């Protein structure tokens, strides 16, 4: 909401300067987005009076004027304005004065006549809409006075924004109540403007949907002059609020909206057939707006109609049939209280506007009649006309009796020091709370415009913002911290991982914990989703179960920007459904990485190749080796959602599942816009009980001995099982075991494969002999034969 400071001070004028006033608005819980100082863009303009007005002899559209500006000599001015006539007081730009956009006025000859100045319209002074009419000042305006001083244009424009729990901040009345309470001032009561009823005619109101429309008020105003000009005092205020319209009725409605926060609507009465019906639209029913715009509605949209057609939708979205135009003589002025649920459907369909914003935040139901009377009073004074009675139709009686018990001990506990009972009572009184103090507590009822006050803490917050947060002295908090070793361990593991990955050329990324549920369904179709009830946007409405969706989105983004080689990693919490946990949600800390595209940049000495599964597996093993012994890590081939069925594996640490690795599934390549050479891993850092201790030992001075074997085994046997058996066989000896070859061909019968395995022996105390190495190797081959029916190839 935007408004001028002078307009606010008409409601409440504390004896403080502008800077302090702006700070008080902020401290009351209403954010001041900015304050813009307004200065007039013209100078040298004074008030004059036309004492003679004669038509030009050759050009009847022009008039030759004699203008008195309070000096001895009258000015001779040529003017073509339609409202220029003898006896009116006008704004005169004398020779040497400056208009908006730095236009300087000089003497000149117009159509053969000398013109010693210019009569100005508001538009030529840089104000309001384009208008050919010159300014007409009231008869009592003194001649010769500076127009800038007379119009009081120098002002501060304040732009405020509110949170959803402070709808009272969307009106000057609401702001004034807060400022009055802060400065210990008494607000003047609202002056009830009761307009005399001149006839008894009413429009019948039928509320058919009683849940969505709580009440509806309507009043007929007849014989108005819609073509009168908006008074300057109203024009100026609405201009600074960016709500100035060419329609006087719209201007009056906007004026009431800013002043007291009550949205009103005006319909052309002559095009309404008998009664007003408030109902839900029929499916595929249309409303016809101006400029041949036709909108198809659905059964969730609340509408105001007569017996034949839809007249309007809440939010002043009026049909072209009932819009106010230059020929309108009779209007129906309405006020309605609509449920927030219904407003939310309208916003989704029609998009939000200023009036819908007020409805969405909430309006005071006890000011509706006052708003109708206030607007009617302005219409009669400016446009003339006669009025009928206010017809009120309520579907539900509004009962506002939210009694809250406020304990003095609770206030002291939250604030941190003893708060005087008298001060609390004074603040509650200044905020218009109804309250009754007992020995240890108050029973309070918030005012009708603060329907956001629901619990004891809300009342305490209200008290504190009036008391002043700056008056509450800081008390150091005493806290006994129970440091969680698990968190320290996670941080240590991640730091080690990050150093290793960065040295391998990876970049760290950070993504939101909220993702698009459609993406999650694509990657993990069988996992339960944690959906947010009030998401930032639809594509951020689901809690992530994995870090992969964010990494894949990063890969796609960079691919679209011609990046051919990508290595990225991320760490963070992921969330899954687990009814055994607090709130039914399991939180787990993960580390994930993704690679895609070329292994190296193009160069002259090396062939370009695509990254593969083993590039990522090697980087992962470097990380795991810094945590634990790789003998405790096992990669098991498994089918994993989102990964290629032939290039995926689960990762186990001491037979506990810790993560997964693999190539992205082919079905996701096109849908998620990634390359086939995209590989990902993800491990849980919560499953490592401790970091591998650093051991320092001497390097053996005795030589190593190597033995290589080639064995035939069934293709169904996993290679890791063979290696594990070999390591277990030599568990008490220092032997390095490596797989260096896998080979299969048609010559091997019964689906066999050949494994080439190297054994490197070394002893810390002596040189090993060939005979004992051969004996150990024969025993190892025998163990492999017994368990896997492995055959030694000759």
From TrEMBL:
- Identify the cofactor(s): Mg(2+)
Q: Does the keyword Cell inner membrane apply?
A: no
The UniProt annotation places Mg(2+) binding at: 452, 458, 462
The enzyme's E.C. designation: 6.1.1.20
GO terms under biological process: phenylalanyl-tRNA aminoacylation
Q: What are the entry keywords?
A: Aminoacyl-tRNA synthetase, ATP-binding, Cytoplasm, Ligase, Magnesium, Metal-binding, Nucleotide-binding, Protein biosynthesis, RNA-binding, tRNA-binding
* Single GO MF descriptor: ATP binding
Describe the protein's quaternary organization and the partners it interacts with. Tetramer of two alpha and two beta subunits.
Q: What is the protein's name according to its record? A: Phenylalanine--tRNA ligase beta subunit
Organism in which the protein naturally occurs: Buchnera aphidicola
Give the organism's phylogenetic lineage: Bacteria, Pseudomonadati, Pseudomonadota, Gammaproteobacteria, Enterobacterales
Q: Which gene encodes it?
A: pheT
């Amino acid at each position: 909401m935007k408004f001028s400071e002078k307009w606010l001070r008409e409601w409440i004028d504390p004896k403080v300067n502008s800077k302090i006033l702006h700070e008080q608005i902020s401290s009351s819980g209403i954010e001041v987005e900015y304050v813009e100082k307004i200065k007039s863009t013209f100078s040298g303009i004074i008030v004059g009076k036309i004492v003679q007005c004669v038509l030009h002899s050759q050009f009847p559209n022009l008039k030759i004027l004699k203008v008195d500006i309070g000096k001895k000599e009258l000015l001779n001015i040529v003017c073509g304005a339609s409202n220029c006539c003898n006896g009116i007081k006008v704004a005169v730009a004398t020779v040497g004065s400056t208009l908006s956009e730095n236009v300087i006025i000089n003497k000149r000859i117009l159509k053969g006549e000398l013109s010693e100045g210019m009569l100005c319209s508001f538009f030529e002074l840089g104000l309001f809409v384009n208008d050919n009419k010159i300014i007409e000042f009231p008869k009592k305006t003194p001649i010769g006075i500076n127009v800038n001083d007379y119009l009081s244009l120098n002002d501060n424009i304040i732009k405020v924004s509110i949170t959803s729990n402070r709808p009272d901040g969307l009106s000057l009345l609401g702001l004034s109540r807060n400022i009055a309470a802060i400065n210990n001032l008494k607000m003047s009561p609202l002056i009830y403007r009761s307009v005399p009823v001149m006839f008894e005619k009413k429009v019948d109101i039928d509320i058919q949907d009683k849940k969505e429309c709580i009440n509806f008020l309507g009043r007929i105003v007849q014989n108005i002059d819609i073509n009168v000009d908006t008074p300057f005092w109203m024009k100026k205020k609405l201009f600074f609020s960016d709500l100035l319209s060419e329609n006087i009725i719209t201007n009056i409605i906007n004026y009431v909206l800013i002043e007291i926060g009550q949205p009103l609507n005006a319909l052309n009465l002559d095009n309404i057939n008998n009664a007003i019906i408030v109902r839900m639209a029929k499916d595929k029913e249309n409303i016809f707006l101006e400029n041949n715009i036709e909108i198809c509605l659905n059964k969730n949209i609340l509408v105001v109609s007569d017996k034949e057609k839809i007249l309007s939708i809440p939010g002043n979205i009026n049909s072209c049939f009932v819009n106010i135009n230059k020929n309108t003589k009779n209007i129906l002025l309405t006020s309605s209280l609509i449920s927030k649920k219904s407003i939310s459907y309208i916003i989704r369909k029609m998009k939000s506007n200023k009036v819908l914003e007020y409805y969405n935040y909430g309006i005071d139901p006890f000011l509706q009649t006052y708003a109708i009377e206030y607007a009617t009073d302005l219409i009669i004074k400016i446009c003339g006309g006669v009025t009928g009675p206010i017809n009120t139709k309520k579907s539900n009686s509004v009962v506002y009796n939210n009694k809250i018990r406020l304990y003095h001990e609770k206030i002291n506990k939250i604030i941190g020091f003893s708060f005087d009972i008298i001060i609390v009572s004074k603040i509650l009184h200044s905020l218009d709370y109804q309250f009754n103090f007992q020995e240890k507590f108050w029973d309070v009822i918030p005012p009708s415009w603060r329907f956001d006050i629901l619990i004891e803490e809300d009342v305490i917050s209200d008290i504190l913002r009036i008391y002043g947060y700056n008056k509450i002295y800081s008390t150091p908090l005493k806290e006994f911290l129970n440091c969680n070793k698990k968190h320290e361990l996670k941080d240590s593991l991640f730091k080690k991982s990050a150093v290793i990955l960065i040295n391998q050329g990876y970049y760290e990324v950070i993504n939101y914990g909220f993702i698009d549920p459609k993406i999650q369904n694509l990657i993990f179709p069988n996992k339960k989703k944690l959906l947010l009830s009030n998401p930032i946007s639809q594509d951020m409405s689901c809690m992530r179960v994995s870090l992969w969706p964010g990494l894949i989105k990063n890969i796609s983004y960079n691919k679209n920007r011609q990046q051919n080689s990508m290595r990225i990693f991320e760490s963070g919490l992921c969330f899954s459904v687990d009814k055994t946990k607090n709130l039914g949600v399991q939180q787990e800390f993960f580390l994930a990485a993704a690679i895609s595209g070329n292994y190296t940049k193009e160069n002259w000495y090396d062939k370009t190749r695509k990254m593969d599964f083993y590039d990522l597996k090697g980087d992962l093993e470097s990380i795991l080796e810094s945590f634990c012994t790789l003998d405790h890590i096992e990669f098991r081939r498994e089918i994993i959602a989102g990964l290629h069925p032939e290039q995926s594996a689960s990762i186990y640490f001491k037979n506990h599942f810790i993560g997964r690795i693999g190539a992205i599934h082919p079905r996701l390549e096109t849908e998620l816009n990634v390359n086939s050479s995209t590989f990902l891993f993800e491990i849980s850092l919560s499953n490592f009980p401790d970091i591998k201790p650093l051991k320092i030992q001497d390097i053996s001075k005795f030589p190593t001995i190597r033995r290589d074997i080639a064995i035939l085994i069934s293709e169904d046997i996993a290679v890791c099982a063979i290696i594990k058996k070999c390591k277990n066989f030599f568990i008490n000896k220092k032997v390095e075991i490596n797989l260096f070859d896998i080979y299969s061909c048609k010559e091997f019968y019964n689906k066999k494969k050949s494994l080439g395995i190297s054994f490197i022996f070394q002893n810390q105390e002596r040189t090993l002999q060939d005979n004992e190495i051969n004996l150990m190797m024969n025993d190892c081959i025998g163990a492999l034969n017994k368990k896997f029916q492995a055959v030694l190839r000759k």
